[in-house]
Each structure stands twice: as C-alpha cells, then as structure tokens.
Amino acid sequence: MATRPVALIAGALVAGLTLGPVAAVAWRAGVLTGLEPADWAALRFTLVQALLSAALSVAFAIPVARALARRAFPGRGVLIALLGAPFILPVIVAILGLLAVFGRAGVLNRVLEAFGLPEVSIYGLHGVVLAHVFFNLPLATRLILQGWLAIPGERFRLAATLAFTSRDVFRVLERPMLASILPGAFAVIFVICLSSFAVALTLGGGPRATTLELAIYQAVRFDFDLAHAASLALVQLGLALVAGLVALRLSGAGLGAEGMDRVVPRWDAGGTGLRLLDTLWLALVALFLLTPLGLVAARGALGVFSLPGPVWTAAAHSLAVALGSTALCIFWAIPLATRRGELLGLAGIALSPLVLGTGLFLILRAFVNPFSLALPVTGVVNALLSLPFVLRILRPEAEALQQDFSRLGGALGLSPYAWLRWVYLPRMRRPLGFSAGLCAALSMGDLGVIALFADPDRATLPLQIYRLMGAYRMDQASAAAVLLLALSLGLFWIFDRGGRANAGS
Amino acid sequence: MKKALTFAAGMMIASTAGAQTPVLTVYAPDYFTSEWGPGPSIEAGFEALCGCDLQYKPGDLLPRIMLEGDKTRADVVIGLNTDVTAKARESGLFGPHGQDLSPLTLPIEWADETFLPFNYSQTAFVYDKTRVDTAPDSFEALLAAPDDLKIVIQDPRSSISGLALVLWVKAIYGDKAESVWEQLAPKILTVTKGWSESYGLFTDGEADMVLSYTTSPAYHIIAEGDDTKVAAIFPEGHYFMVELVGKIAATDQPELADQFMEYVLSEEFQRMIPTGNWSLPAALPRSEWPEGFDTLPLPQKTLFFDEAEAATVQKEAVEEWRRALSR
C-alpha cells in the first residue's frame, strides 16, 4: 500500500535533512581535513564502547523480553511502561542517577562497605558500557518483546499439541524471530552509542574515554574548525552506514506470520526452573533500571510543586513540540518502513547533533531568520532523530502484514486508503502505539540541536534543567527532571496503552 | 464610521510608533539570558534608559558570529571569553568599545580596545568543610594530598573552566606541567563535559572537591544560608577568568550600542553582577560589593595568559593534560 512516490518523498526528506547539513558545513569549510592522531584514538574508543554497549544491551534484553512475553503478573504493564524511562532522561540527570547507585558515594558501595568489602569504581570502559546498557537495554527489550508478541499464538498452540519442549519452541519459533529482529536492534543501539559524549567522558573517567563526538564539539565550539568537524561527522556517518548494511544483510527476510494476533498462554514454559529463571531476570533488570530512576525521582519529587513559572511554561512548550514531532514522525515513518527506509533512517541519529544544528543554521539562514524557528526546528529534528527507532518497531510487522494480506488486498482490489483504514491501522495498532509513545517521550527529552537556535522566550524543559544547573540550582533542576520524567512517561503510557488496548497486556 | 476611522488612524500611529522603537540585538550565552541569569535585570535597566527594545539571542557565541560573518544580526555580543577573542578579533567584525578603562577594578591590567570586561572570577577548587577535614592550602599541598581525596574537573576541550585549569597549571608549573598532571591523575575522580555536571557530582557527595570558581561559595552563603562550601585559596595564585562584551563594527544601531557599552561599566549594571551572575563586578570597588561577597576569601595573586600568550601555550598544555591523564 505504501505507494512509491510517497515513500520517495519521505526518503528524500530524510536524506536532505541529514546530508544537507553535512554538505552545508563542508561547503562552508571549503575543504575536508584528514584525521589527527588523537582522532584515531577517539575513533578506536568510540567503536569499542559502541560495539560492547550494543552487544550487551541486546544480549541481556533477550531473556528479559522472553520473560515478559511468557509471564503474566501484576505490574507487568507498569514495568513495560517504565522500561521507556531511562532512554528519555536528560543525560546529565541520568548520570547523576547512575552515580547515586554505582558511584563512589552510591548505594552499591555503601552496601559493600557494610559487609566489609572493598569499594568498586564505576569509572572506566565498564562504566561507559554500564551506562549505555542502562539507556539501551530497555529499548532493546521492547524491540525484542515486540517480536515475541508478533509470533501468532496459534503456533505456540500447535507446538503444544506436538508436545514441543521449551528447547524445540526456541529452535522452531523463537530463533527465527530473533534472527530477524536482533541485527536491527543491535544496529540502532550501536549507532546511537557512536555519538555518545557526555556519558562516555564522565563515566569513562577522563580523556581515555574520548569519543568522536567530543572532537566534533571541540572543533565547532572552541576552534571553529568546520573542515575538521565535517570530516569527523562523515566518519561517524560512514560507521553507521556500515552497521546498517551489515544488519540488513544479517536480518534476512521477515517472518511471514499469518495468525490471529492474540497472545495466548504458553504450554512449554510451565516448569518451576523456567519460572524461576524468568523471575530472576525480571527482578534483576527491574532492580538495575528502577533503582537509579527511583533515586532521581525521590530526590526531586517534593520540589515539583514549588517549581517556578518559567519551568511550567517550558513544560508546555516541550509538550507541544513532542506532540508535533510524534505526528510528523509517524506520518514520515509509515511509507519508510522498508529495508531501504530503515537504513536511511539510521542516518538521522548517526549525524552529530552539533553538525546537524550548524548545517541547518547555515541553510535556514539563507531564507529566514533562524531564531524565529527555534521550536519548529526542534520538532522536526526530534522527529528525524526518533525515526530510526520507530522504523525498527514498525518494519518487521509492516512487512509481515504486507506478506500476509497483500494477496487478499489485491484480490479485493483495495484502494490505498481502504488498505490503510481496514487492514493496516487495525493490525498495526500495537506497534504504532508503541512508536508514537517512544517518539513522544524522546521528543520531550534531550535531543535538541538548539544551541544555535535558542529563543529566549521559548525554552524547552530539558533546556531549563540545564539552565537551572548552570545557575547552581541543583535542587530545582532535580525537581524539573522529575517533572520531565513524569510528563514523558505519561505521554509514552497514553500512546502505548492506546496501541496495546486489545493486545491482552 | 467616524469611530472606525479614528480607530484605524490610532492603529496606524501606534504601529508606526512600534516600528520606530529601535531594537538593540544582543547575542549572549544561554545561561546569561535565562530567568536565573543576569540578563533580564540588565535588559530592564537598560531599556529604562534608552527608550529602546533590547532583545537577546541566546546561544553559542563564536560559532554563530563566525557563521554569520558580516551579515550578523547582532549589534552587541556579551559573554565572550578570552579563549575565543583571538578568533573573534581576527574576524574583523568587532569595532572599538570606545570606553574609558580607568573605572576597572580588575586584579590585572586591562588595555584591550575591542573587548570590554564586565565581570570576572578565578578558578578554584571548592570543597565542603564538613566532608574534608584537612583541605590543601596550596597547589603543592594538593599535589601531596592522599589519593583518596577525589576531585572532579572539566575537560579543557569542551569547557572554558576546564581550559582555564590547564592554563592555571601551566602558569604555575611551566615545563613541569605534565608531571604535575601525572601526580594529580590518581586524585581525579573523573572529567566532565561542562561545569554543571562537575558541580552536580560535587553537591551529590560523589567528589570531595570540584574545579569551580572563587565566587562559588557566595551562592551558597547568600541564596542558601549555607557557609560549608569553601574555595581553597592557594598562594601560588589563581587563574583569571573574565567575561567580555564587544560591539559589532557594522551595527546599524551605533548610538544604542555605544550607550550599552557605557551602561556595562555603570554602577547600576555592576551592582547587578554579584548576585545576578555569581561573579565579581569588573568596575566596582570591593567596599561596594554586597554582603557575602565582601568577606569572601580571594587570592592575593592572579595568574593570566593574555590572548597571544594563551595561543602559544594552549595546544601544548591541553595535549600534556591529555597524555598524562590517558596513561
């Protein structure tokens, strides 16, 4: 149903919005420069941490998603919703939350001390990876869970009548699903970790943990060396492209599921051992993800109601931007939920936000006053940056749908509108709801490229949090972060819930 | 009908009057223009004098000015640091500030005819005296302190205060800077992108000392009634950090821009600085500083590389820092 011209326009918009800014920066610089020795060290560290972070996020997400897929328990819905939270926290708040648990003065070291055990240090490569797993494990879990829920219940029933063991179910039903989902999930997390900077530096413990993004930041803001910035940005884009291509090649064809779309009980997983295993995984991940969040929330919760007016105004701006971004992102994603579209979508998060902002500023300046566009630019950029996540969610199920129903649709001679109305929307409700929730939450969070576009009267909530911190008001910043967290989760929950209303969860 | 005409005429007069209110466009760092920065009160004070509309355009200063070149919309740029003034000067976009510099009360000589200082502070390690029993009282003592005294600093490649620290060490130790960094390395808990992350780590109790400013304790004293945060004052001297304002040479509002430059050194403006920006006024004698600032311990000796000296040592100093901390 995705008519070709629409897909082409959507694709061209993504390409234009990512390649355009790099081209503008490179053109303005006149030349590209080679990498310096320090850049090679940064490139090496960037690659190592991104590979480890993506691999561990995906590896731990598998048992967690499996447990969520085959167990029903009170609070399951809440846990799934909270899984979205680490991803949307402003970086600085998330770092302080993680350190409250794993830091020198954190909960973990207090516990170790109480047992007379030596202190453990979070700072180093392991700290960087831990933080990135904290951010991305929930995303990976949701992506994989989505895959599990897309396996038609009839197949598990059939497996039960054939007296399949848990191992047989894995081999026949689950492994093919994982093989099609994991490469894409790995790629999207790898690419997002490529442009990590503040997290990598702080938890890496010093300049050993220098990433390419830091070099770009230095080139733009301190040295105003646009040639260097554009060269580094192209290296980042190239890495993302390779990751995307490899993932595409590995992920193979879709599942071709043709079932009744209902979550049905599992007959193969009733043993006490498996039950314990699932419980253990869920408990571990809940502890790992929710303790830092809980500490962030506990610190700021009391202050929320005494936050000053400008913070609330900023919250309203952020909500407006988030809703606009969500609508834009979903319309953008529907025609792009194909193999090529997904590869293209990765470009948005692969591009350094600083280069994206600088390039957009250069381009827009030729036509309009860029300062009048602070919020619209933020909205469009947020949609662009959410696109790869949304495409990752939509594509597997959109392709399965195409495979399962296109013959029927063709036989009935359905118009594109009728297809959308009667086949696509009802069947895609769950992934669309999840996509919209994720996009809305991400757009509330810390994605802005507003350093060059800031408008004094239209600050967003994450910007106000940074301003409060910059003015020594750490307590108010914590409270504002709780407000941000609550609003993001609220949006996420509403959209996601809407999508899951008939999905038996 | 007559009423409608009168209304229309009134509207026209009002709108032409609106169009005639001159606008002074000021580029400023984001923190400066926020509700919690000094920007809003400065705007109100100046608008009361000039009969004009002062509009801030917050954001990164150097990249934006350089990207816009001679098409810049700015009339005045406030909040520049000495790290970027060389590039800003080279661009040829800035004209002379035209102000008499004799009212300046800086701890160093200032004779720049392009960039006018409006406030300053010095780098310092800040600690909580309820958590640190014996704080180092000199840079030497800091080097000799036990390794479990953990300090958090900012990266000189992404933060102006981080760069000031590297230049501070270079100014005291010169050729020995790299070995000083090696001595400091085990005490450095971590390095952050900017000042806010570091300060958050410090107030959360994660680090014992934080690289900040001599004026940081004033915030806690005045705004929170908390006198436990102290800046360690070292006899070797502290590095000077100043914020500057410059006038765009080709401004279409030259009189207003000049009036603003004059306002910057006025007593009214300077009195807004201490509690508005938590730093020291550039042209106000210490006796006039507000309570909490007047008793703040300040260094006897101020260290500073001017723009030209900094340009020759900066790259090497940052590289020494990177090498020593990467081992």
Descriptive report:
Chain A: InterPro entries: MetI-like, MetI-like_sf. Chain A: One of its GO terms (cellular component) is plasma membrane. Chain A: It is found in: Cell membrane. The complex is a heterodimer of chains A (505) and B (327). Chain A is mainly α and 505 residues long. Chain A has a single domain (4-255, 264-500), classed as Orthogonal Bundle (MetI-like fold). In chain A, 75% of the residues lie in helices and 0% in strands. Chain A has 21 helices and no strands. Chain A has helices spanning 4-29, 37-70, 76-82, 85-88, 91-102, 107-114, 125-149, 153-161, 166-194, 198-204, 212-222, 226-251, 272-300, 309-333, 339-350, 353-365, 374-412, 416-427, 429-444, 461-470, 474-500. The longest helix of chain A is centred in the last third of the chain and has 39 residues, at 374-412. In chain A, 55% of the residues are buried. Chain B has 327 residues and is α/β, with parallel strands linked by helices. Chain B has two domains: 2-120 and 241-288, D-Maltodextrin-Binding Protein, domain 2 (3-Layer(aba) Sandwich); 122-240 and 301-326, D-Maltodextrin-Binding Protein, domain 2, CATH 3.40.190.10. Chain B has 13 helices and twelve strands. Chain B has helices at 2-20, 30-33, 39-50, 61-68, 82-90, 139-144, 160-173, 177-184, 195-203, 216-224, 254-264, 267-277, 307-326; strands at 23-28, 53-58, 76-81, 94-95, 115-128, 151-154, 188-192, 209-213, 229-232, 238-248, 280-281, 302-303. In chain B, strands 1, 2, 3, 4, 5, 6, 7, 8, 9, 10, 11 and 12 form a twelve-stranded mixed sheet that branches. In chain B, helix 7 packs across helix 13. The radius of gyration of chain B is 22 Å and the shape is globular. Residues 7-17 of chain B have low confidence and may be disordered.
